[in-house]
Amino acid sequence: MLWIKTFHVFFVVSWFACLFYLPRLYVNHAQTKEDAQRVMLLGMEIRLIKMMRFTFWGTVVSATLLVYSIAGSGWKAYIQQGWFMAKIALVFLLVFYHFWCIKIHYNFAQNQEHRGHVWFRVFNEVPALMLLLVLYLVIAKPF
């Protein structure tokens, strides 16, 4: 079980690194006026999105294996705990955020993204708040 937990933490940390950095690239993208810099940022974004997809699926697979390794045949009861259901709700919001980030990249690629850098600075803070809440739920198991 420790290997599964190790891989899960590794993939979650890696996924969050992508969720933190991609919107930061969007801040820069929204500020630039130069075509060469836009092309460079688009390239950085697509490479990061590829990494983000890989780490996302690593997170999903390792989470599934982790739940089963912790709860075994009682996995149904395990996932019905209040803290776990709240955590999963937050994870679903993070998944939505993940795909929204990808959509924003495609908007930039087609010159159809019109939000300013200030909006992206606020947008960039969402995964940090979600991570804090998820960590609290996992560590404290308040309900």
TrEMBL record:
One of its GO terms (molecular function) is metal ion binding. GO terms for biological process: protoporphyrinogen IX biosynthetic process. Binds 1 heme b (iron(II)-protoporphyrin IX) group per subunit. It is a multi-pass membrane protein. The keyword GTP-binding does not apply. The chain crosses the membrane at residues 6-27, 48-71, 83-106, 118-139. Its cofactor is heme b. Heme binds at residues 8, 87. It catalyses: protoporphyrinogen IX + 3 A = protoporphyrin IX + 3 AH2. It is an enzyme of class 1 (oxidoreductase). InterPro entries: HemJ-like. It is found in: Cell membrane. Catalyzes the oxidation of protoporphyrinogen IX to protoporphyrin IX. Belongs to the HemJ family. Homodimer. This is Protoporphyrinogen IX oxidase. It comes from Marinicella litoralis.
